[in-house]
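Q: My labmate handed me this sequence with no annotations at all. I'd like to see what the chain might look like in three dimensions before we decide whether it's worth expressing. Could you predict it?
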Amino acid sequence: MQSRRGLKHFLIFLTLISFGTVHANPVLRVDSGDSVPFAGWCFTNPAMAKMIADKEQEGARCKLKLDKLTEELNAKHELSIMMLETRLESIQSEYLAMDQIKTEQIEQLEFAALKRPNNYWYLFTAGGFVVGATTVLVIVSVLGN
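A: Here is what I predict for the chain of 145 residues:
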């Protein structure tokens, strides 16, 4: 049914084009008994009226089709934007949750570190003296030989 309708529209369009390109007047009314100086098709008044109406309405049909496609694309893009916004909100909330966990862990580690103050400075000082003295003795023994 669709292909017959499309073929019908194509033939009407072709007929209108051929009338327009061959003659200056695209529509020529022929009364019964009149002769025509060219070979062509004859249409009844209702058929001719339908062809003219179809030609006039073709622009409106195209505009409707274009409007429909525009609305579909707009809806598709709005959906994509909404999905991206939802994803962004999800990632932001995930980041904030991870940042909160990190902050809590840092506070716990600070509390644990401050609970046991570092009172072993004398051990580090003594270790530095021992390492320094050992290094000097090793260098002197190596250079002395």
